[in-house]
């Protein structure tokens, strides 16, 4: 089968090229104009300039610590927690870190939700094999949850 050029393909190719040009140019750079003369680069100086090693943008040069202060270790992102819904039941979870991400997967053929009794979090309706996500509450405590579609399905989320 031979490929034919259609107006749709031509439009898509044109848009793709235009997007590529726009992405390749920094946002603060003006588009090239045919009437603008090319700017000449300044002549290199006789002496090489010393690099600014105090730049906050250098990755291997952390900002100086305040005198007498100890450097704190970088904060690690909490590992995501997984809760699955299967057999009209929520899987058990260990205590989770406040604010940590929680992935919820519905393995049942029926739709379900994972909704906090106090309304603090809710996945919305998840259909079969659908993944939802939410963040654990930021305040430590025990949070009861249920399925809005099947209220007899309940569980608890312990936040530390």
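^ structure tokens above, recovered residues below v
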């Amino acid at each position: 089968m031979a490929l034919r050029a259609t107006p749709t393909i031509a439009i898509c190719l044109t848009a793709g090229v235009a997007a590529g040009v726009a992405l390749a140019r920094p946002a603060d750079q003006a588009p090239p104009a045919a009437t603008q003369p090319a700017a000449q680069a300044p002549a290199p100086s006789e002496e090489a300039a010393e690099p600014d090693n105090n730049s906050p943008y250098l990755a291997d040069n952390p900002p100086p610590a305040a005198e007498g202060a100890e450097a704190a270790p970088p904060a690690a992102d909490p590992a995501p927690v997984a809760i699955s819904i299967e057999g009209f039941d929520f899987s058990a979870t260990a205590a989770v870190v406040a604010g940590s991400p929680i992935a919820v997967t519905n393995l049942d053929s029926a739709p379900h939700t994972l909704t906090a009794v106090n309304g603090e979090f809710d996945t919305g309706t998840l259909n079969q094999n659908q993944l939802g996500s939410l963040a654990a509450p930021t305040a430590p405590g025990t949070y009861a949850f249920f399925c809005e579609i099947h209220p007899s399905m309940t569980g608890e989320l312990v936040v530390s």
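The chain has a mean pLDDT of 73.
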